[in-house]
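User: Predict the complex.
Assistant: Input components as received:
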Amino acid sequence: MLYDRIFAGALLVLSGLIAWTAYHFDVPFQYEPLGPKAFPIILSAVLAICSVRLIVKPDANAWLPNKEILIKIVCGLVVMVAYALLFEEAGFILATTIVGSIFSWLFGEKPLKAFLYALALSLVSYFLLADLMELNVPTGLLFGDL
Amino acid sequence: MDVLQYLSIGFSVAFTPLNLGLVLAGCFFGTLIGSLPGIGPINGVAILLPLAYSIGLPPESALILLAGVYYGAEYGGRISSILLNVPGDAGAIMTTLDGYPMAKRGEGGRALALSAVSSFFGSMGALLLMVIFAPLLSRLAIEFGPSEYVWLMIFAFTCLATMVGKRPIKTIVGVVIGLLLATVGIDSGTGILRFTMGIPNLFDGVDFLVVVIGMFAISEVLILLESWARNDLKMTPVGKSFITLSDMLAVKWVVLRSTLSGFLIGVLPGTGASIASAVAYGTEKRFAEGNNEHFGEGDIRGLAAPEAANNASAAGSMLPMLTLGIPGSGTTAILLGALLMFNITPGPLLFEQQPQIAWGLIASMFIGNIALLIMNLPLIGLFVRLLSIKQSYLVPIIVMLTFVGIYSIHGDTFDLFFMIVLGIFAFILRKLGFSLAPVILGLVLGEVLEENLRRALSISGGDWSILLNGTMTYILAFATVAALVAPKLIKKFKK
């Protein structure tokens, strides 16, 4: 109930923001009757109506994760953000080894095994992705002269 | 040219070594992805899409590969349903009802083989229907003007809202979010920037791939993290039993009926395999009135019906995507996005002007289905063994593939962060009972809807009555109202 109401409230604010922004679009010239403002404003109106309805009649929602699960999800998110940060700088091999080990460990693997698996995975996939499929995979500053 | 000539063009495309290899690879990986519990067709296609895009395959080949993954995954979904009682995705839920009890009785082999054969006939039947109806529908669609397209999309969203999920309102919210995402970027009519918040990466609009991967793959990883439990799933042994001719004859009408209904439901915009299999199961249960007490305890009819139907709907949902540019399911919405990325506009003219794409895909599906049947009868043991792959090995691969796929499009880390943000948003949506397919559908159709609406009003000089002008608009408007009212009437009628 509460989650639905909070979310719908956020959507309501968002729809207001969208309508306001769209209304203030600076359109120097326009050939057609509808223009670039109308469509977003119509959509924000629909969104606002739906949000109000959700606030009035929310679903019974009982998502109550325990502390352990929450920590896991946050861990996963932090690791993914770290992956995005490391991806270019540290290069694919290093970043994937670190991130892969942590994910493997989060899903119940023993630390050493997780590390070895991630190392093998990153080396094999680097070869497959960069050399064989010729994808744009960063080597990173450390391995820059490879 | 007639259908057979087009079909022969299609087969000449599908039989080139590259495309033949891609069909087989797509079907193999699709079955693999579908058989892994928790990862369904939509995730499989989403994860492989950026890779297919960045290796630089020609459009028809990329489409052949991705479609192979799609229907391969519909095939594979039954393996974990039958052996683990864990459906790979929503479309495989009904298969657990009678499939798992059969496996528990020691008839796992019989259930797997029977469902493979039903799946095969389901998709082959639907393909034949597609070959018949695709030219008809595309000829009809040539007459479509902007007003008709506006109605068609409104009809699609209405079908989606009334048939998917428990709360129509949440589906509409999903569609609107998708439509709004589509408005980000330079407006094609006037050249002004909309909702870019000054971020240069958004000037071209939100990248379709980033949204798809973020919303499906990243949120899936978060869901897996949440639902992961230490106790390993217990697999039921397959057993030695195998399908017999009398089994097949016993379900022949079941398969035929389910193929037809699955195909029709697949064609309806927005409704996918989950509804098709549920409807087919319910229909068969009612058809067997008086003799249906074994449904849910391992009745072969209850296994054949949803399997034939969900594979038929996978083929059926391709029909409106190719002929009208309106996807029939969440997964075909992703395929449609893939086509648009290759600068190919699906629609009635696709069949005339680029037959190698439309007919090449259809021909490849014939080949793919035969390949799937072969893979799924003798090679079933291989996929069964792959079911025991640990999530601790699987998740790092998924995460790696998503990051490489997204990074290799523009070589810009902004996309990676944006993808994570969208993943968090999608996770919240899923936890609150929204489904993600409407968002993708809205995103894919947003630009087309706005463009057609603006074009229609340009023609009429701002007069909205152009939207109800001509027989086809009346028919579509009526269909929209029918889609709105029908579920409520059916509910009342049942009582």
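Residues 89 and 273 of chain B are 9 Å apart (CA to CA).
Let me know if you want any component modeled separately.
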